[in-house]
Amino acid sequence: MKFKKRVLSNGITILHESRDLPVVSLAIANKFGASHETSKVKGIAHFIEHLLFTGTKTRTHEDISGEIEKKGGILNAFTAQDLTAYWFKLPSEHIFTGLDILADMLNFSVFPEKKFEKEKKVVLEEIKMYHDMPQRNIYDKIVSNLYENPFGEGISGSEKTLKNIQRDFVMDYFDKHYSPENYIVSIVGMADFEAICDYLEKKFTPKNKKYSPLAPKKKNSHTTETRPGIDQAHFVFAVHAPMADDERRYVLEVLDAYLANGMSSQLFLEIRERHGLAYNVSSNINTEKTYSYYTIYVGTRKEAVSKVKALILKGFEDIKKMSSKDLKEAKERLIGLRRITSEESSNVMTELLYAEFTGKAEDYYRHEKKIRSVSLKQVKSLAKSLIKNYSTAAIVPK
Question: Do 212 and 55 form a contact (C-beta atoms < 8 A)?
Fold first, then answer.
């Protein structure tokens, strides 16, 4: 593995993991996301992400997507709580085609008037789509049970907030919240590091803009929504978790690998194999810079929700029975999974972004060492402390 990192004179931080395969994944992330928004403008970061694809001074929407796709590439973006990222994956010889597109979008987007109102409708359809997918919508509900508003209101916003947002306001908001000194560029693949540094130095001028996320306020609550037209109950159990700068985050990974991650985990075996209560039992650790929470999802029968909850609580309690052999197997699973997922360059591109944003990109390469250092005592202690307070959300058939 060959890794380089540099901070340019315009403030951009560049990360590069070099690979021999002639394919490259590259992202430009701005340290601005949904956690920077008040309730009045909730969803504006996500809306801006959409608008950057609608056209620039010299390119239409069709040009933006077409120039990448005609080279066999992928162009996409995502809005998270603490950052927004725009990325592509291309054959290495076309890397500057991709960079030209991203630079144009970030520097010269015009938010075309005809596209502005149409894109509102697109985002509203996206919100409806996720609402109508209970297995997806349940995660919005659990966030609102873990955090007070505005953080708990979700990344996409609502029909009310989007309808009230005007084009001039959004353009001004974009100008105030996008600035090179807040950009992280993550590159994984075959690329000329020096040439990219020179390119980014020339294309981006610092604006000296500063902005900070709103500190999320934690809470714990429980909700159940009765919904017509579905046959399965969707249940999520969640706890607040160690933050990105807390070494216990590695302990949580080990705990999760043993408790709920994968078909050999304790809760999968207990809930699905022994009791036949579910098809899908899965877990997630959700961590950025300002927040962290851990979720366990189960799709089950309406009448089994209380039983599933009891089994999850018992699963946490039974961590005290975890053995040294269990610990070793959980660690090996995590280390093996990291090696397998790192084969995909876009996965590493994203992981490096978050590692740099929450601490140092170099921490990504220390993962195996950190996992191996976790003790059985730490895992048992964390499980005991996490379960003191928890939240639940359920969407059940009417």
Answer: no
Measured CA distances, 144 to 91, 218, 393 (Å): 41, 10, 9
SS3 79: strand
The angle at the Cα of 136, spanning 135 to 138, to the nearest 5 degrees, equals: 75
Query: Could you tell me the fold of the domain covering 2-203?
Result: Cytochrome Bc1 Complex; Chain A, domain 1 (3.30.830)
Which residue type sits at 228?
A: P
Q: How far is CA 56 from the centre of its chain?
A: 27
pTM for the whole structure: 0.95
What are the φ and ψ backbone dihedral angles of 19, each rounded to 5 degrees?
-135, 155
User: What DSSP element (H or E) covers 76?
Assistant: strand 74-79
- 222-397 homologous superfamily: Metalloenzyme, LuxS/M16 peptidase-like (3.30.830.10)
C-alpha span between 95 and 90 (Å, rounded):
6
What CA–CA distance (Å, rounded) separates 363 from 352? 9
With a cut of 90, say whether residue 240 has pLDDT above it: yes
Cα(381)–Cα(256) distance, integer angstroms:
14
Sheet hosting strand 278-287, strand order edge to edge? 222-227, 391-397, 233-240, 292-300, 278-287
Tell me if 315 sits within 8 A of 274, measured CB to CB. no
Tell me how crowded residue 133 is: count the other CB atoms within 10 A of its CB: 11
| Sign of the torsion angle spanned by Cα atoms 133, 268, 285, 365 | negative
Distance of CA 78 to the CA centre of its chain: 8
Two tokens, residue 353? 């972004």
216 cis-preceded (ω within 30 degrees of 0): no
From-to residues of CATH 3.30.830.10 in the chain: 2-203, 222-397
pLDDT in tens, 135-181: 999 999 999 999 999 999 989 999 999 988 999 999 999 999 999 99
Assign 209 a pLDDT band (cuts: 50, 70, 90).
Answer: confident
Q: Facing residues of 225 across strands?
A: 395
Q: Is the pLDDT of residue 1 over 80?
A: no
CB 165 within 8 A of CB 41: yes
Q: Do 5 and 361 form a contact (C-beta atoms < 8 A)?
A: yes
Q: pLDDT tens across 320-340, in order?
A: 999 999 999 999 999 999 999
Q: How far apart are CA 344 and CA 350, in angstroms?
A: 11
